[in-house]
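Lab channel / #folding
Pinned by the channel admin:
"Please post every new chain as: sequence first, then the structure tokens as a reply. Keep commentary short and put observations after the output so the thread stays searchable."

First post following the new format, from NK:
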Amino acid sequence: MDLTYSPDQEDFRDRARSWLAANVPTAPLPSPATADGVAAHREWERLLHEAGFAALHWPREHGGGGAGLVEQALFAEEYVKAGAPVRLNRLALTLAGPTVMALGSAEQRERWLPGMLTCDELWCQGFSEPEAGSDLAGVRTRGEIDGDKLVVTGQKVWTSLSAFAQWMFALVRTDSAQRRHRGLTFVMIPMDAAGVELRPIRQLHGEPGFSEVFLTGVRVPVGNVVGDIGAGWTVAMTTLGFERGGLGDHARFARDVGDLVELARRAGVADDPVVRDEVAARFVEVQQFRRHVELVTSRLAAGTPVDAQASITKLYWSEMEARIFETALRILGPLAELTVEAPMNLAAPGLHRRYWHARASRIFAGTSEVQRNIIAERVLGLPREPRWTPT
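Reply from TO:
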């Protein structure tokens, strides 16, 4: 693994750092879970697009930056260091867009990719369902073919950004005679279509970042199906591969550990040996993750596929992120229960929000239990645990 950067890569880092220093908003943008926040983040996304930084990982022929993996990692690191806003249309840029590029038709790429890049069209993900849990093959939302339309009826839940999205990429069951992974179809659903109903799910911090989505006889053109009808499982696995196979945002976690140090100082426990040991453990974990990301980046840049090993990346960072914010709450002790407005509150703005998000990271993109199974079977080659049957 070569940890040195070429002159061109260092030049790219310098250009990215200079642009971010000149353009990152000086004040935090409103929460992207609000209408004002979405509008403000949209403006930021358009600025990124005009500068060529919106989708460095996309090929140039599709409007992206065509950057190499190392440049992508360098930009991500500088982006976090600059305190730049959270990316708004991540589901489009990292999941829906790459899926359309890989498996969609030329007409679909022409229709959807430009709006993703400019953030004129926001996307949400319609995978989770109330009865399916983490079992994506258990989706019950139906899609019935009626001429040139797919009539969709069912329910999706925990749908991020659905209140503001123009499109949802969803997995529906088009052949009820087939079981599990067969008979599924991957389709793009316009959120303003007749029969789409949103019911916001208000979270502990008071904002409706998610919604339940009810679909009642929603008529979607068959041309919105990505891949073949009935082959949705293959398309969905491609999508999840993009989600789990990300390079990992080690700079963000390093920032979070730095926040732990400052929090311990404010709480007056920076000299407590137990606190120091726990914060040091989080620091070491982040450094280990950074080296892991560099190793994966080197392998990918050399053309070596990581395949199921992407689950190692996802499992590591999601468990590490949760531990970082569990440490933060232990540092605060009883003060962790205070709200942001409380006079004695010592937590930085957003700490509680990040804590709850970190807990969710053990679930989205495949639960930690699912990732452990994948690692055991496909990376380590361990046998599957036999199913227990009653005698």
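NK: The first helix runs from residue 7 to 23.
TO: also worth noting, The mean pLDDT is 88.
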